[in-house]
Amino acid sequence: MTTDSNAIGLAIEPPMRWRDRVRAWSGSVAYLHATDTMIALAAASLPWSTTALAVFMLLWLVAVLPTIDWEQFVLDLARPSFALPIALVALALVGLAWSEADWTERLHGIKPLSKLLLLPFLLGYFQRSQRGLWVFTAFLASCALMMVLSWIVLALPQLKLAHTASAGVPVKNYVDQSQEFALCAFALALPALTAMRARQWRIAAGCLALILLFLANMFYVVSARTALVYMPVLLILFASLHLSRRATRLLFAAVAAASLVVWTTSPYLRQRIADVGIEYRAHDTSGIASTAQRLTYWRKSVKFIAGAPWLGHGTGAIKHMFTQDAAGQTGLQAEVINNPHNQTFSVGIQWGLIGILLLYAMWTSHIRLFTGRDLVSRDLVTWIGLAVVVQNITSSLLNSHLSDFHEGWMYVIGVGVAGGMALRARQPEKILPKGAAAEVVALKR
């Protein structure tokens, strides 16, 4: 019996030692540095390459999985900020059952929201990692480089890294570029204010210089008109959270004066605003008709939602519904699209009022990560997180920016990193998983 027991013990012991080695390795300083570097590189690659972003996010997820305390992860899923993104994706999966679209379109309909599945992992990880600022710094540096290159290719278009339709856009498109530059400009507002209050004039001057360069690029080179909607909202939000009434009045007076100067000196901005009226009156697709197109898409979207108000027409049904409605039509009425340029309508057409309720519940839960009575302080992290959520909600009135690749990933990474750090500040005892002695050393450095 003793011999048999020893044999059984030897058979069981190696796997146990293997698991222990994996735990020790995944808790090492080098491993944790590498994991944090992966997510920072993902943020840095976001303005430049969809492929690089996907590769770095996949590598980060693979690296994170061995470090997860699964018992704690399951407990965290009780939080709305963790659970609601998963619930929205689950609804999309269930919505395959009643969709009238073909299976190619149904499966394609899952893809835009699938990135939300990473939010619980990001939120959980950055409750433990103290290097979240690496991610934001990497994104800011990458956007600053993009901004410099934007000015260069405006003068020398042959230096563009990719074929783009707009002047001053080195890669991708002006909508994505505007979203990045605006977020960076408003994220820098709080460090600039903090530095001025502390009389750290060099830091304040550096932040203000970057803010002005980002904004000047948007007003004089290229920008999305959606930015003219969410930027005032972010400005009001910043003033209400961080400025006194007197400082707010001074800021708004300065903004009004600056707006007048920009309006009189920027032919580009004046033309962009004037195009709204021209496009509103457009009744065909022979020219630029973005405003008229959106109004047409929205009217049709309301009609589609009214046809199946509770559960919608199923995952991937947007193109199918527009195809049916376009039969026998001409002009804008004959357009077939798979994006109604409004996140609420995009969700409502596919999953009805249930989907819309989940969407707004998720947005609300993420706003509450950075607000609420249990908020420890209104620091840079909470400001960045709140700015990311509010920008996404506001821009999603005119676009499907949670579903769109670039803006959706800005949301997932921004909320995941900032939200995890905000949760850690509320519960500092959850910085580390049990037994991760090596990580203690790493995170204190």
Q: What is the topological layout?
A:
Blueprint: H1 2-26, H2 29-45, H3 50-64, H4 70-76, H5 80-94, H6 103-114, H7 119-125, H8 132-155, H9 174-187, H10 189-197, H11 201-220, H12 227-242, H13 245-265, H14 267-280, H15 290-307, H16 318-326, H17 343-369, H18 380-395, H19 405-426, H20 437-444
Describe the structure.
This protein is an all-alpha fold and 445 residues long. The chain has three domains: 14-66; 68-127 and 293-445, no CATH class; 136-281, no CATH class. The protein has 20 helices and no strands. It has helices at residues 2-26, 29-45, 50-64, 70-76, 80-94, 103-114, 119-125, 132-155, 174-187, 189-197, 201-220, 227-242, 245-265, 267-280, 290-307, 318-326, 343-369, 380-395, 405-426, 437-444. The longest helix is centred in the last third of the chain and has 27 residues, at 343-369. Residues 432-445 have low confidence and may be disordered.
User: pLDDT average, as an integer?
Assistant: 89
Q: What is the percentage of strand-forming residues?
A: under 5%
Structural class designation: mainly alpha
SSE pattern, N- to C-terminal = HHHHHHHHHHHHHHHHHHHH
Radius of gyration: 24 Å
How many β-strands, per DSSP? 0
Describe the structure in brief.
This protein is mainly alpha-helical and 445 residues long.
Features:
about 70% helix; 20 helices; about 450 residues; mainly alpha; disordered C terminus
